[in-house]
Structures are given as C-alpha cells and as structure tokens.
Prior knowledge:
Shape: globular
Distance between the termini: 70 Å
CATH class: Mainly Beta
Helix content: 10-25%
CATH topology: Immunoglobulin-like
Number of helices: 3
Order of helices and strands: HEEEEEEEHEEEEEEEEH
Largest sheet: 8 strands, mixed
Structural class: alpha+beta
Strand content: 25-35%
CATH superfamily: Immunoglobulins
Strand order of the largest sheet: 4-3-6-7-15-14-11-12
Number of strands: 15
Amino acid sequence: xxxxxxxxxxxxxSAFTHSHASMVWQPLPKQSAPQGGHAGHSNNQPAPQGxxxxxxxxxxxxxxxxxxxxxxxxxxxxxxxxxLEEGKARISSRGVGNYHALVAVxxxxxxxxxxxxxxxxxxxxxxxxxxxxxxxxxxxxEIVPEPLPREHWRYQSQNEARFVIHWxxxxxxxxxxQLTTANGSQLSAxxxxxxxxxxxLPDDFASINPGRRNNKPAEFVLTTNHQQGESHYQTTLSAxxxxxxxxWQSNQLALLMVAGGFIGGLGLVRLIPRTSKGKKA
Length: 281
C-alpha cells in the first residue's frame, strides 16, 4: 500500500513538472539542495569575525531554468545574485525577516521567460511592508499577489486567491492566466479591466487527515504570456497551498455540539427533584 501511494505521488509530480515545461521555482526537501548559500557563498565557510554563522537556509530548485539569471530581492529591494548548482540552491535571508522574492529571467532570441516566487524568511523585523516588494518593478510581465499571505493566513483550497497582471508596472486587462496544481488540476481565467484575476484554489488533495500539520501542502503555478511586437514574454508565479481546515473543523464542531448536548442533558437531569425515599403517600 505504501509503495502504491509513493508511485502515485511520483506520477503526479512528474505530470505536473512536464505539463507546463515553463521556468518555475519549486521548494526541495532540506537534504536535496547543495550546501552553498545564495550569492555564491558557502555555508561551510567560517562566518566573519563578530557575526553569527549562517544557517543552511531554505532549499529551492529552478525547473527548466538553464542559462537563467537569478537573484534574491530583500524586503528593502536590495538584490543579490543566486548561485545555482544543477539548478538548486539554499536561500538565506542573512538575518532579515519578512518576505523575499526569488527572481529568474532568461532571454533566448525573441522569447523572454521569467519565474517568480515569494519566500518568507525569519529574522529581525525589516520594517518594510510586503507590498513594497510585491509592487516593485521586478519583471516586465509580472503576476502580483493581491495580497501576499500574512501572519496566520495562507493559501488554502476552496478559498479565493487574487492577483494582478502587470505589464511594465501597468495593469494588463483581459489577459489569460492559467493555474496548474501538483495534484493535477488545471484552471484558466482572464484578468478584468483593472488587470485583476481571481482563482478558487482547487480542493484536490487525494487524502486528508485531521489537523493542519498532518497534511503536507501542494504547489500551484500561475502562468501568463504576452506578445509585444516580435517579442514573446512568459512569466510564472509559484506558491504553496494547504488543505482547507473546514475538512476537520466541521467534524470537530459536530462532536462539540454532541458533547455539549450530552453535558447539558446531564445538568437538566440533576435539576429534576428526586422523590424522597420512604415518603408515605
């Protein structure tokens, strides 16, 4: 049974990977990425005097990204190059908390491809709003989250996810956007007059267990294309989405209601006067 589940998972991931053949940022298991940090620094090197050693960072892979230029954007819009080893790298915030942006760009002839992903890093408060990063001009054709998940909110199945399509900082209206999930769902929508597009994230998890930590997130990728003269642009935005808690919270609520009714019934029974023993008629 375990082997069958593993085989199904591998087939789904393979189908997801080859279905778009677009340049996409994807997370990796911690043991799958090289030990080098971003900007070409190695985590095996000693830290400069007076600074704490850098941690391993978060591992990512740039799929279909051979020859791309890659960079990490900090919350204050500072940029540093990312050194990839076989398309993989560990990304470190260097102590600055808040969202960072993974950006990859590649031009081949008249085709300009780009991949974007936002990653939350722990560290000292940056003092910047995430909107500073999301609304900064990073790509000619850009998919902007509106807004990014914050604090205890995250992308979840059954919930709406909103985005704005930008072409050189201006909203791009009536433009097609595709959404593909690692679980096999494919959706398509068009941006409105303000460049906004909304997707209800599919509830396509094959198996669901009670509790958020007992369900691994899946990946979705948004893809859009734009033709400008003889140049063709394609951009992707990738992110994780989670099982909607309503799957187990509704069951928990029903159990609480039953338990409440049972306890309430016991209370009423105790309030009923008992007939005194030995009382004469």
